[in-house]
Amino acid sequence: MAKLDTRTLAAMRGASALRIVTYNIHGCVGVDRRYDPARIAGVLREIDADILCLQEVDPRDAGGDQAAYLATATGRNLVVAAAARGCARFANAILTRFPPLATRAIDLAIPGHQPRCAIDVDLMVGHRILRVVATHFGLHASERRLQAYRLMKALASGSPVADAVVLVGDLNEWRGRAGGVGALERCLGPSATPRTFPSWLPVLPLDRIYAFGPAMLGDIRVYRSPLARLASDHLPVVGTLVWTGVQPGASSPRTAVTPSARRPYGRRRDDVAIDERAGLV
User: What CATH class is the domain 6-278?
Assistant: First the structure.
C-alpha cells in the first residue's frame, strides 16, 4: 500500500479522492445492548463516505431488511451479493454513491466453522472502474489463513474491467500482521492497523483497508464520534483513495488489475500445504 503525505493528499482531494469506510455494525446492537439501526445510520451520515462497506448486517432482522434501511437512510445504492444473504447469521453489504456494474460472491466457508463470504463488486466511478471486495474473516487463526488464501485466488482471477482494487473488512486478526493478514500483505503490501475494538476502549486492530493498482490510500483513521462509540462494538475505519498516474481508458482493451500484477507472490512450503487444504491447488 502506497501512502500519501498530507500535502499531496490535500492537493488532490478536490476532484478525484474517494472516501471509503469499513464498519462492523454488530447487527445494529450497540454497546448498551440496545437494538437501534437509526444510530448506525446516524454514524454513516456523519462520515458521509462514498463507499460504505458493512459487516454483521443481520438479514433476519424481524423489523425489516437492515441493509435496505441503511441504504435508504444514507441515500446510497445497495450491493448485497446473493450468497452473502445466506452467510450464516450475518451478511456483508456495500452502500455506495456509484452505480454497480457487476456483483459477485466469494465463498470463504471453511468446513467446521461458521460460513463466511465476501462481496466482490465493480463500481463505475466517473470514467474509471473500481473493484471493491468486502469481507469478514472467521474467529480462528487456521480458518483465517485458509480464507486469506482463498480470497487471494479470487483476487488473482481479476475483474476484466477494473482499473484498481480495494479490499476491506473485519479480518478478526488481533495479532497485528500475523496469520491470514500476513498472507494478504505479502501480495497487497501493508495496511494501516488502527485499533477499532472494542469501541469504548479500542485495543485490537481488527478492521483494515487495502488498495492496489493505480490508486493510493491515505488519511486512514478510526472514526471516534460519541455516537460511533455507542452504536456498535467496533469503530469504523475511514480511508481516502486517490487515483494516480494512469488515465482511464489509457490502454485498450482494459487489462485486469490483480495482486500478482502488482507484487510477485512467492509461496512458502507451508503455504502450498495450506492451499491444498483449502482446495486451491
Answer: alpha beta
Report in angstroms the alpha-carbon separations of 68 from 36, 112, 169, 250, 272: 15, 31, 20, 37, 41
Residue 109, pLDDT score:
86
Longest Cα–Cα distance in the chain: 54
Give burial (CB, 10 Å; 0-12/13-18/19+) of 135.
buried
Q: Is the pLDDT of residue 243 over 60?
A: yes
Please give the pLDDT value at position 53: 97
Question: Is it true that the peptide bond before 236 is cis, omega within 30 degrees of 0?
Answer: no
Burial 90-124 (b: 16+ CB within 10 A, else e): bbbbbbbbbebeebbbbebbbeebeebbbbbbbbe
Q: Which amino acid is at 201?
A: L
C-alpha to C-alpha distances, 237 to 44, 58, 115, 220, 223, nearest whole angstrom: 11, 20, 24, 7, 6
Do the Cβ atoms of 189 and 263 come closer than 8 Å?
yes
pTM score, whole prediction: 0.81
